[in-house]
Design brief:
The protein is mainly alpha-helical. The protein is 61% helix and 0% strand. The longest helix has 13 residues. The N and C termini lie far apart (60 Å).
């Protein structure tokens, strides 16, 4: 009523009802465009050169890592870590993205860092994907269980519940852990 009173006909001209009452975005919604985003998403599956990697922000690194194919070759994982030190990153977004990629690719040299990282962080957004990756590989399931038993007291109760559910589904959780 206010809009119609102050700007007669404006709501109808922009199809305000579609924005306010219809599900999703209307066809007339503007489409965002980002050259930087396009540049980052064009990188995978290649390993960027040092110059390109040096220009990536933590968010761009995360987007790049999230868009790498799963699994990625051991050679690509090794090159990423050697060239950019992703395994040693102190930025949790970069480290978790790298560790997810490495674990989902079966890149064994990343396992010790993943175990350390699970003891350093407590946020569900970092814990859940790493535990899922460890539990997906039969060779690291027991390691996931042992890591959880070692660090669970530092996790939030909700995080504990979710990780215990993952462990249980994988057949690696018993109340004897606690």
């Amino acid at each position: 009523d206010f809009l119609e009173r102050e700007l007669p006909g404006a709501a109808a001209r922009v199809d305000a009802a579609a924005y306010l009452h219809a599900p999703g975005l209307p066809a007339s919604a503007p489409v965002p465009h980002s050259h930087r985003l396009e540049r980052v998403l064009a990188l995978p599956p290649a390993v960027p050169d040092r110059e390109v990697g040096a220009t990536l922000t933590p968010l761009e690194w995360r987007l790049y890592l999230d868009h790498m194919p799963r699994p990625t070759s051991a050679e690509s994982c090794a090159a990423l870590d050697a060239r950019f030190g992703l395994g040693a990153s102190r930025n949790a977004e970069i480290a978790s993205g790298w560790l997810e990629l490495a674990l989902e690719s079966g890149y064994a040299p990343a396992i010790p860092r993943a175990i350390d990282f699970l003891g350093e962080v407590g946020r569900m957004k970092y814990l859940k994907p790493l535990y899922k990756a460890l539990l997906a590989d039969p060779g690291t399931r027991r390691l996931a269980r042992d890591t959880y038993a070692r660090h669970c007291d530092a996790y939030h109760p909700i995080a504990r519940h979710v990780i215990e559910s993952l462990l249980s589904t994988a057949g690696e959780y018993t109340t004897a852990l606690l």
